[in-house]
Specification:
This protein is mostly beta strands. The protein has no helices and eleven strands. The N and C termini lie far apart (40 Å).
């Protein structure tokens, strides 16, 4: 059974930082590409960042220079380091792992950026 469990969300002030984690089980993690998505209230889910098996990364324009995605295949975990957070970053953040046509999603973790 595949499980993805996100953690690290919370309430942070504008300009602050958070690191999200997504721990996977039930898959050969190193064979998958990992990504983070987010969904703000009343909005569609949007892409945030991805990292390939070889470590190639890409980011949404809205987070470039502020967020960093990384992976630790020894821990079956993907991370999202978020710096210089803005109120518009408030959303539920979900991780996704994919390999070909196969993909799995986590339940998400809430990030709230507010003074």
């Amino acid at each position: 059974q595949v499980q993805l469990v996100e953690s690290g969300g919370g309430l942070v002030q504008p300009g602050g930082s958070l690191t999200l984690s997504c721990a996977a089980s039930g898959i050969f993690f190193s064979e998958y590409r990992e990504a983070w998505y987010r969904q703000a209230p009343g909005k569609q889910r949007e892409f945030v960042a991805y990292i390939t098996r070889s470590g190639i990364t890409d980011y949404a324009d809205s987070v470039k220079g502020r967020f960093t995605i990384s992976r630790d295949d020894t821990k079956n975990t993907v991370y999202l380091q978020m710096n210089s957070l803005k109120p518009e970053d408030t959303a539920v953040y979900c991780c996704k792992v994919s390999r070909g046509l196969q993909s799995y999603w986590g339940q998400g973790t809430q990030v709230t950026v507010s003074a």
